[in-house]
Amino acid sequence: MNTENVPQTSQLHAVKQFFLATFYGIRQCVFQLLCWELFELIVNLMGFYLYGDHPGAFTVRWSVYLCIVVFTMLYHWLALIIPKEERLARFVIPYIICVVGWLGGFVIIALVVPLVCQFFFLMENYMKKKLAPRPKAFKRIKIAYNSFALATFLLLIAMIIYLWI
Fold first, then answer.
1. Which residue has better confidence, 51 or 155?
2. 165 vs 87: CA distance, rounded Å
3. Cβ–Cβ < 8 Å for 57, 145
4. What is the pTM of this model?
5. Start-end of H helices in the chain
6. Cα angle value 76/150/83 (rounded, 5°)
7. Closest by alpha carbon to 97, among 111, 85, 87, 108?
8. For all residues of the chain together, what is the average pLDDT?
9. Rounded to the nearest 5 degrees, what angle is found at the Cα of 93, between the Cα atoms of 12 and 78?
10. Alpha-carbon distance 136 to 41, whole Å?
């Protein structure tokens, strides 16, 4: 056996796992943000305005989005380091980082949004278990979901590049 490539292989494996966790995090963020937008639309169509008319509504809205992205990405990146058996630690560490990070601003958002994100993680696991007996349906849904998340991510990257140019 050639042992010269073992460190390089483990480094490549670590990089692959990091990018895979990043993709899972981005996919979960896209899903959560889409659900949040639908929730906002339904509430607004019912005649109640989620953020009201005060001047800080824009800041509150983007604070919610940022909290969703920060918590979700930290959760998926910590999944690389913390084993599956330590689910509480995988939740608590990003939760504490979100709360401490938002101490200067909207602390209630930092307290509540990670719990909503955790609900979405549990919902995804529940859907995987329910679709496990139907592998064809599971595969089609997964392909559609990944395609939508990738297209949305590429659109976001294109918008960021367009704004910088």
1. 155
2. 42
3. no
4. 0.71
5. 6-45, 57-81, 87-101, 107-131, 135-164
6. 15
7. 111
8. 77
9. 15
10. 32
